[in-house]
């Protein structure tokens, strides 16, 4: 009886201690994550004049959004960016991680090359975007090289400030988010499984397709979550690399903010958030993040 | 050792290309920042000079580069310290599997995947409606934590997933109090990983743009300043600034990596097995 009692109080103690230690984190998330989401949702029902916003409860902002053909085009464009970037980063990220995990033989080299891949992640995204200008511009390296090889006669205009440059920048910035989780999962694959497959007569591509890829799926999923959400929520890469010629949802929100149309920006933000959370909800069904770390 | 298969050479070539893709553009602007005074944003180089770096150090129309640089460093350090402390506490808390930890975990994931502009917009709206002024050291700081804390906590999860609990049990069996166990057993074992958390905290803050956009008020942080420059500066001074901040980032990364390396060496020399608690 006493042991049950002490166990109960021990349990209670555990929950209280847990909450106390998690309190700073919970507070930050409450003030800077939950409250902003609530505020955006509330303001999305407000009205706006040219210079101010006023509390109201009207569906005008949503009605305008959902009946506008532009909204659907912009959302479609956002999905297009996400899909193409996802395919590119997955192919590159998987190949790089596969090379590091299965072809580099010493652990020291694996760590060194892995670090080399991750260092750009810790430097500024904006500067990494800017650094494409000398490559892609009208008189940039790419054009001069192509002209001197005789591939083209005149500079190609679509290299910079186009969908091409936007996606190139996305791939450049976010492939790391694929490499890291996939490499992490691959390093945990029991090498004897591969030996078993080889002993069983599997060819190289069969080992890859039937053993490695299925076992790497959790890492692929985590990478996918990162890449898809980063691309869907982006506004700065699209603005900078498209020279303001293409739009995605983030750009739409940023435009409204620039015009002080906060209620309209909030309504778009709410729809974007719901879309992103739905995508993540689907992806999370395939992976248990906490187990995979 | 068995001979390398052909695929090794193909994959090596791809890997090298990937590194060129990663580092090539940054190296290009590093070279171009040494343009002569008459040079432009692209090749060819019109002479080699330090002209554009000198330009940075002169008081000029470009903006308040050094002010924003020092603000970014202070903010980065604030975010770094908070991220380490709060993530460790959070990581320890989650080990207790307290009631409601699942909800907190989903909040963390939401914080990670939410489009940054929503944080910016929401915080900006709350503060403006409450009649308060946003400032980089209050709202900017809080907004950045929503980006660094998830990384810190996920690293702590990874650390504690590999944590050998028998060390703690041994300490408890020998009569250590929970605090003593934490202070003398758990913290020394996880210390090297905290360098990683600190690195994430500082660099993610130092480079953060979207979450600071509407939350930093009238004083810009460095990334905001640089972005402002991209719209009205068309000289290589932009590249010079880019090169300088990248070098600064690399120095910071280098310092952290060396710290981690020294810590590991010191440990193996002293014959301490503290790090072995991670399995």
Task: Outline the structure in words.
The complex is a heterodimer of chains A (293) and B (279). In chain A, strands 1-2 form a two-stranded antiparallel ribbon. In chain A, α1 packs across α13 and α8 crosses α10. Chain A has a single domain, classed as MetI-like (MetI-like fold, Orthogonal Bundle), CATH 1.10.3720. In chain A, 39% of the residues are buried. In chain A, β1 and β2 form a beta hairpin. Chain A is an all-alpha fold and 293 residues long. The longest helix of chain A has 42 residues. Chain A has 14 helices and two strands. Chain B is globular and about 75 Å long. Chain B has ten helices and no strands. In chain B, 72% of the residues lie in helices and 0% in strands. Classes of the chains: A mainly alpha (293), B mainly alpha (279). At the A-B interface, α1, α3, α4, α5 and α6 of A face α1, α3, α4, α5 and α6 of B.
Write the layout of secondary structure elements.
The complex is a heterodimer of chains A (293) and B (279).
Chain A (H helix, E strand, L loop, with lengths): L1 H42 L3 E2 L4 E2 L5 H8 L1 H35 L3 H12 L6 H6 L2 H4 L4 H8 L14 H25 L3 H9 L4 H30 L2 H6 L7 H10 L3 H23 L4 H4 L1
Antiparallel strand pairs in A: 1-2
Chain B lengths: L5 H27 L18 H7 L7 H31 L5 H13 L2 H14 L6 H26 L4 H8 L4 H30 L14 H11 L4 H33 L10
Helix pairs in contact in B: 1-10, 2-10, 3-6, 3-8, 3-9, 4-6, 5-6, 6-8, 7-8, 8-10
């Amino acid at each position: 009886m006493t042991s049950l009692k002490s166990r109960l109080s021990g349990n209670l103690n555990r929950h209280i201690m847990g909450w106390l230690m998690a309190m700073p984190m919970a507070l930050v998330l409450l003030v800077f994550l939950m409250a902003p989401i609530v505020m955006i949702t509330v303001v999305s029902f407000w009205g706006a004049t040219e210079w101010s916003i006023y509390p109201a409860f009207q569906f005008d902002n949503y009605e305008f959004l959902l009946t506008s053909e532009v909204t659907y085009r912009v959302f479609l464009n956002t999905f297009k960016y996400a899909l193409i970037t996802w395919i590119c980063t997955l192919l590159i990220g998987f190949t790089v991680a596969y090379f590091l995990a299965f072809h580099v033989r010493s652990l020291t080299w694996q760590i060194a090359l892995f670090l080399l891949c991750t260092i750009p992640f810790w430097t500024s995204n904006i500067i990494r975007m800017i650094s494409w200008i000398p490559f892609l511009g009208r008189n940039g390296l790419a054009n001069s090289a192509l002209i001197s090889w005789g591939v083209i006669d005149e500079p190609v205009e679509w290299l910079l400030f186009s969908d091409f440059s936007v996606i190139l920048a996305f791939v450049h910035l976010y492939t790391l988010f694929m490499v890291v989780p996939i490499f992490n999962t691959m390093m945990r694959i029991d090498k004897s499984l591969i030996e078993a497959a080889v002993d069983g007569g599997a060819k190289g591509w069969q080992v890859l397709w039937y053993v490695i890829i299925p076992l790497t799926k959790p890492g692929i999923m985590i990478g996918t979550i990162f890449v898809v959400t980063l691309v869907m929520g982006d506004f700065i890469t699209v603005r900078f690399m498209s020279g303001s010629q293409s739009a995605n949802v983030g750009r739409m929100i940023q435009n409204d903010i620039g015009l002080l149309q906060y209620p309209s920006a909030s309504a778009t933000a709410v729809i974007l958030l719901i879309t992103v959370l739905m995508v993540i909800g689907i992806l999370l069904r395939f992976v248990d993040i906490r187990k995979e770390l | 050792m068995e001979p390398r298969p052909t695929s090794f050479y193909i994959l090596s070539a791809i890997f090298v290309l990937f590194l060129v893709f990663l580092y090539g553009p940054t190296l290009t602007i590093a070279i171009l920042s040494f343009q002569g005074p008459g040079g432009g944003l692209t090749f060819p180089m019109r002479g080699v000079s330090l002209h554009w770096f000198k330009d940075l150090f002169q008081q000029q129309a470009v903006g308040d580069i050094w002010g924003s640089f020092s603000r970014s460093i202070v903010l980065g350090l604030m975010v770094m310290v908070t991220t380490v402390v709060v993530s460790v506490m959070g990581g320890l808390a989650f080990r207790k599997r307290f009631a409601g930890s699942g909800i907190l975990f989903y909040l963390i994931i939401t914080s990670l995947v939410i489009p940054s502009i929503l944080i910016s917009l929401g915080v900006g709206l709350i503060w403006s409606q409450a009649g308060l002024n946003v400032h980089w050291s209050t709202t900017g700081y809080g907004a950045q934590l929503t980006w660094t804390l998830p990384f810190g906590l996920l690293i702590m999860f990874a650390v504690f997933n590999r944590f050998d609990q028998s060390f703690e049990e041994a300490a408890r069996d020998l009569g250590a109090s929970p605090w003593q166990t934490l202070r003398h057993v758990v913290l020394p074992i996880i210390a090297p990983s905290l360098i990683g958390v600190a690195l994430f905290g500082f660099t993610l803050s130092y480079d953060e743009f979207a979450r600071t956009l509407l939350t930093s008020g009238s004083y810009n942080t460095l990334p905001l300043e640089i972005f402002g420059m991209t719209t009205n500066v068309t000289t290589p001074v932009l590249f010079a600034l880019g090169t300088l901040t990248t070098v600064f980032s690399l120095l910071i990364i280098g310092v952290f990596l060396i710290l981690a390396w020294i810590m590991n060496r010191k440990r193996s020399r002293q014959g301490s097995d503290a790090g072995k608690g991670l399995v």
